[in-house]
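Minutes, project huddle
Topic: does the predicted pose make sense with nicotinamide-adenine-dinucleotide bound?
PN asked that the exact inputs be recorded in the minutes so nobody has to dig through chat later. Recorded below.
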Amino acid sequence: MPVPDVSGRSIEELISLKGRSAVVTGAAWGLGKATARRLAEAGAAVLIADIDEEAATATAKELADRYSVDVSAAHLDAADVASITAIADLAENWFGKIDIWVNNAGIPSFSPLLDLDVEEFDNVLAINLRGAFVGAREAARRMIAKGQGGTIVNVASLAGVMGISEGQAAYCSSKHGVVGLTKQLAIELGSQGIRVLGVAPGFSLTEKTMFIADWDEETVKSCPIPGIGASRLGRVGVADDIARAILFCASDMAMFMTGSTLLLDGGIAA
Ligand SMILES: NC(=O)c1ccc[n+]([C@@H]2O[C@H](COP(=O)([O-])OP(=O)(O)OC[C@H]3O[C@@H](n4cnc5c(N)ncnc54)[C@H](O)[C@@H]3O)[C@@H](O)[C@H]2O)c1
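Predicted holo structure (tokens), as shared on screen:
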């Protein structure tokens, strides 16, 4: 494979996603929504695929109006293999190709081990890990069939690289799986020009998580994740911290990166 010389390209050109199309799962709310926003701002056409179709449609409209790019929405249940395949078909039909696929849809789980039943464990794995595997497979199949290359970004978690607090057995297992999947797919897909990267957020404020704690000034400063500790940067993470990193991974700025998962935890794991 020839070594591309991009030293003559500007930063704006390298970060631009003009002419590319992206699928972001679970992008009606939270980190996925912030990611869809940054990808659209960078010029990509975006399909927002989410189980909450009403919110997905509202988010798509908001972003299409704001950035004058093609942003569409469709129903996805990441626990359902056929639903993921249907989204990949839809994206290919609408955009002609899929350049970027972000496996973001995920659910938490809080049951301590002794209360964690197999159904809950399986459901968390089905959405967080199997959903990412099927999404990556369907994206890769289509990228390879078109001979075009592409980028897959998996949203893992700090709980994908270390154990967290009590009650995280299912979630932690699923996210460690996502980090492993990212490494393995990078090995399998690199020769096809497909890069596979992960991001591992620490606790990040979203529309939903901002209500689970009393975010007074002191709490935000110390950003305490039970059993782990505080961000080293004196503030809590926010959705856009994660979205900017995903944009970087998806863009040509990261053209020599594959297989790694970026820690976006404000230094907690340091
Ligand atoms: N926010 C954090 O602190 C944090 C930290 C580490 C990792 N993460 C990961 O980031 C991702 C996004 O988390 P978030 O905090 O934005 O969550 P969120 O709950 O705010 O958003 C999740 C989105 O996924 C959608 N969704 C849920 N189940 C789905 C399904 N079965 N199929 C399709 N869509 C579905 C929801 O409707 C929502 O739009 C998840 O994978 C999560 O594990 C979040």
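Observations noted during the meeting:
- The pocket of nicotinamide-adenine-dinucleotide is lined by residues 25-26, 28-32, 50-52, 76-79, 104-107, 127, 155, 157, 201, 203-204, 206, 208-209 (CB under 6 Å).
- Residues 118-146 form the longest helix (29 residues).
No decisions taken; revisit at the next huddle.
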